[in-house]
Known about the structure:
six-stranded mixed sheet, about 15% strand
Amino acid sequence: MVARAESDCWRRCHRPTPPTQARKSFRGTLTSFSPPPWRVIGGEMDRRESPKRKPPKQPFPGESSGEWRQATARQAALCTLHQLDPSTPGLMLSLAFRLPCETDVEALKTSVLRLLLRYPALRSVFRRGESGWEVCTPPCNSVPGNDHWSAETLPPTASEKEAGDALRRFCREVPALDSGALFRAHLVTGAGGVFLAVAIHHSVVDLWSTGLLASLLGLFYEEETGGEPAPFPLPRPQDGQAQEKARRGRERSLPYWSALYAAPTPPLRLTSPPLAGSAPAEGPVLARESVHLPIDLGPERTSALAAAAKAHHTTRHTLLFAAQALAAARAAGVERLPLTMPQHRRSASTMTVVDFVSSNYVLPLDLRGATAAEIVRAVGGRIREARAHQWIDFDELALHHRADVAHLPEPELSLVVYEQTPGAPDSTAGVLLGTGVLRSGPLTLTPVFGLPSVGPLPLVTALAEHEGRLVGRLEFDPLRCTPRTAEQLREELVTAVDDLAGPPQVKVRRVRATAAPKGEATPTTAASAETLAERVGETWARTLSLPTVGPDDDFYTLGGHSLLAAALARALSVEFGVDVRPGDVMNHPSVREQSRFIAECLDAPGGRSGPAATSEAIRPALRRPLHAFASDASLSSETRDAR
């Protein structure tokens, strides 16, 4: 009997824990490090007691005392772009969703504010100090919730289009860096539904973080509506050994990047340079909307890419990057070009961090290989080298190591391939491209429209796998790239995918330099002059947001002013590859006169046309790339003069 009793006791003590009980125990352990729950009463956040939680045993994770500290290189680069042109697409990461009509609005509001309290990065503000850009994270008790949350009720007769316009207007508003709020949420009720828009300045978080925020929003909402407490996986602090490893990596990486940029790399010249000081002097700043060209590679090409990656002993991302490079080379007519590759730089300790951890690398590529295998081998080798020396990124070189490198290329074109984000719902990538529904906890988020841009570069290709095929878009800044150039790049991308997905040893079509793109020959006949006038009129109408513009319509009668003259001069310069300045628009204030002026520029001896001369032809002293503004003094003086 004694032996049997001891056996029963042993079984009770060593009985395996049921899965549900283990999960609850694990979640309860994680919630001991979670922030305190909050309720919104009268516009302020008041603490409430919850029987589900124990008081936290350690300070709020990542809490800041409100002191100013040095911003990271990537944050400084984005803040500099904001100062040069606050309306640049991609500075705001914005999403708008349709929610179920039965959504508890108060629980949703509390969930959004808990995101704000959980992640200090969302409360950040920036300023320009003596040694560069600085960032400050105000403590929780000094953050007014009303600055980060707003609500709008539409009349019962409002249409869904009016709700979409209200959401789009909110997502386009660019906040001030020094006063914020750089993380904002806006709720719109009416028009037969409930809509939520979230807008975050890109200097606060990277694209990876948006999936984590969407996932945690659903978990918070589940808890606020009576569900289980939401878990909080905390990042492991970086120990001294990891910091020493990072320091050695930086010392080893700097000579590599210095040697890589020792020789000048010609720019792509598919876009025009950024314009300094193009934001309006007063009123709210609205971000320009990038233009999207849809891309659908289909199930056949997607399967062929997977098979080709296996044949080349590489990854699908490397093949897509090589196809993007080949397409850009064919569109620009060059064999050596720079291409931007984003790198999330996540590790086991930062996989669930909501902050800006991503970085960019501008890789000079040589595409003089004759076969698909040679091109993929060259591109894949450069990618592996860059990842081995990722301790220093391009933005850090541009802002802090300008003296150590001879020639920094200009970032113009980037490829973003959405992969599964650990900790985020499986459908996050599809939602960001507008191809799916995001389900997080009890919340079902249907996108009204996707991100206006994935980054501030003028040309970006974004792809994600959805239902067995690669889909996405080619997005471009309408003030820095023409629709014709973007359309040509998209067509070349599909052709390059077919070339590289074929047999490795088959020769691909070589890159051939072209003097001018199709339809941009010198207007020596009456027919070509008439075509030129039509293209000028189309450029005027597109830039001035008018349906049509007559040949004798006056620029000032149409509402033109100095800022529109600068925008129109830029658009004409990019469209025709000639140097058109704002004064030329004011001195030739009609489509007919402007057409004659452009024809004279194209016919003039030594006149430059075509994409190969576009960048240098329209680059005055103030239109300089980001890395030219390495010193704070030169940036502040030149920007002040430009304004």
